[in-house]
Design brief:
About 15% of the residues lie in helices and about 20% in strands. It is α+β, with helices and mostly antiparallel strands. It is globular, with a radius of gyration of 15 Å. Pfam families: DUF386 (PF04074). This is DUF386 domain-containing protein.
Length: about 90
Amino acid sequence: MELVEFKNGHVNTVHEHIAITKVKEFLNNHDIPKDKGGIHKISTDFFYNIIDMETTTEENRPWESHKEYSDVNYLLNGEELILYNFLSQMELSE
């Protein structure tokens, strides 16, 4: 997991993965708050999804993982609790 700060129209990070570089360029050149909810396809390997949701408790939210994608969370407003762990420390469930 990599934590990146987007503040005053610019993304601040110490080191970059290629996917983070791509996301930074997109965020710096696109006004996401003007977009409608749903999935927005940019290219064959790059899309974003605008979701309007309420954050919940750990007990009510199942864990998720991604092996093929980089999952970037960009909050337009409010706050969200994001917990993370290594897959090697997790147990597979239904």
